[in-house]
Write a structure and sequence with these properties.
Alpha-Beta Plaits; Arc Repressor Mutant, subunit A; 4-stranded antiparallel β-sheet; 3 domains
């Protein structure tokens, strides 16, 4: 992995994201809608199952989840979202991937470009930074009140198909190949583990420090991107972020 705890990197932003819970639910509803277009049954639609699990992990109400699925099943108006990933560099040369779902490409492209340009970043061509990231399964199990030692959990995870387990005082972080994620998640769930996070993510191969004089500018850029209704996920290779 990148050699740095992804969990520690995202903990600092968790409270800020929690304060935007309504917007998070709105974005997840869009993601559920897109996944459910391929079938409303989570037992046969793996993509839908993953996003529903993701929604439940942030306590999205079941009614909201059902509404998004029903909307997709009954969608006769041709509502459609394009999935577009933008690549670029933030202040200090930090690599940034921006995953979007949009019904208006021009609007989204303009908003993303403005967020980069106004905050010392620059958009790049397709493939300009994606090669620095790997698509991985990522599972976090908090250690508080967990009566299991590091060796036991690591053995269970590896036997289930995980690639790596990173440990800290706060949590176990399990990394898998994207193709093995569901099997590993199911095996650990059946073993009785509860997850703080369980998702497919873009994990940087190498993480870099944000220069001290660029941190405020970098944070403004990320905030602008995350506040955009069309932006689903923002991935960076910044340490501590």
């Amino acid at each position: 992995m990148a050699g740095h705890s992804k969990w520690k990197n995202i903990q600092g932003r968790k409270n800020a994201q929690d304060s935007k819970r309504a917007k998070v639910f709105q974005k997840l509803a869009k993601e559920i809608f897109v996944a459910a277009k391929a079938g409303a049954d989570i037992s046969t639609n793996a993509a839908l199952r993953l996003v529903v699990d993701k929604a439940k992990a942030v306590n999205m109400p079941n009614d909201n989840i059902k509404r998004a699925i029903d909307k997709a099943a009954g969608n006769t108006a041709g509502e459609h979202y394009d999935e577009i990933t933008y690549e670029g560099y933030g202040p200090g040369g930090i690599a940034v991937l921006v995953h979007t779902l949009t019904d208006n490409r021009n609007r989204t492209s303009t908003n993303v470009r403005v967020a980069f340009n106004k905050n010392g970043g620059s958009l790049g061509e397709t493939g300009s930074v994606a090669y620095m990231f790997d698509r991985k399964g990522y599972i976090v199990i908090e250690r508080a009140d967990l009566e299991v030692d590091e060796d036991t959990l690591m053995l269970e995870a590896i036997e289930a198909g995980a690639d790596d387990v990173e440990t800290s005082e706060e949590a176990f972080e399990v990394y898998t190949e994207a193709s093995a994620f569901t099997d590993v998640k199911d095996a650990l769930s059946e073993a009785g583990y509860a997850f703080v996070t369980a998702e497919l993510s873009m994990i940087p191969q190498v993480s870099n420090d944000i220069p001290e004089d660029k941190k405020e500018q970098f944070e403004r850029m990320i905030d602008a991107l995350e506040d955009d209704d069309d932006v689903q996920e923002v991935y960076t290779n910044a340490i501590g972020y």
